[in-house]
Structure formats: C-alpha cells, structure tokens
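Below is a filled-in request sheet from our internal design queue. Each sheet records the structural input a requester submitted and the sequence that came back. We keep these sheets so that new team members can see what a complete request looks like end to end.

REQUESTER: design group, bay 2
PRIORITY: normal
MODE: inverse folding
CHAIN LENGTH: 140
BACKBONE (tokenized):
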C-alpha cells in the first residue's frame, strides 16, 4: 500500500503498510511482518469539515476626503454589481435615504446614507462591477 522511511536515533527503518482493515494494520518493518491493533477504529471522513475564523474586519464607514472639507465618500462595503442608483448629482438627501442597490453573492444590498447632504458626484453606473473599498458616491 504505502512505503515510509523513518530515521530514529541514527537508525533507518523501512516501513511498508501491507493492509488496513477496520482497526488492524498489517505492516513490514525492515522485512519483518507485524500485525498492529489500534485502540479505536479509524474513522474516515467523507466530507472535510471547513471551519472559518470569525471576521475581525470592522464595518466600512464613510470616509471624509479631508478633515477640513465637508465632502464625504460613500465606498463599496463589499465587491459586487450596481443594480440601481436612486440619486442624482445635486439631490439633497437625509440620513437613511437609499442611495443605490449593490448586488453581491446573489443578494441585493441597499446602500443608505449615514449623513445628510447634497450629492456632489456619482462615480458608478448601473451594471458596473465595484471592488470593496471603491469610491461610489461623494456627498457635501
């Protein structure tokens, strides 16, 4: 079945696994046959288990262009496609007004304003793909 070479205390051992049935393994070590019984039956997993570490990334917040300016950037929180844009340049918006809809992983995500202001620039169009952190809309 499988061949292994082990080096223990400067001694080399050639191990060949001949067969494996339930909890018994037949093997040869340097040509000498051995039958080894395991304490428990070896369980084989048919499907690997995927364990994900919880995300430690902070939520993406709107970013001020510079602290003395009144402009605010609305950036993409996740990569996706722009499905619809609900504002135009010059529109006055209030907190929680719908700005656009972003499709990501077959889910529609409503992007709303966290600030009141006036839309000064729209950097995306319907159907465009955006990456995480990409500038979409600027507010004044």
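RETURNED SEQUENCE:
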């Amino acid at each position: 079945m499988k061949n292994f070479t082990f080096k223990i205390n400067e001694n080399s051992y050639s191990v060949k696994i001949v067969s494996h049935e339930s909890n018994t393994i037949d093997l040869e070590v340097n040509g000498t046959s051995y039958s080894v019984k395991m304490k428990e039956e070896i369980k084989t997993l048919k499907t690997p288990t995927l364990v994900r570490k919880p995300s430690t990334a902070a939520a993406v917040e709107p970013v001020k262009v510079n602290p003395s300016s009144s402009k605010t950037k609305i950036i993409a929180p996740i990569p996706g496609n722009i499905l619809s844009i609900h504002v135009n340049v010059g529109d006055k918006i209030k907190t929680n007004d719908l700005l656009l809809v972003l499709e990501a992983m077959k889910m529609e995500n409503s992007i709303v304003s966290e600030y009141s202001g006036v839309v000064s620039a729209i950097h995306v169009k319907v159907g465009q793909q955006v990456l995480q952190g990409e500038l979409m809309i600027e507010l004044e």
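SHEET NOTES:
- The CA atoms of residues 73 and 138 lie 5 Å apart.
- The first strand starts at residue 2 and ends at 8.
FILED BY: M.R.
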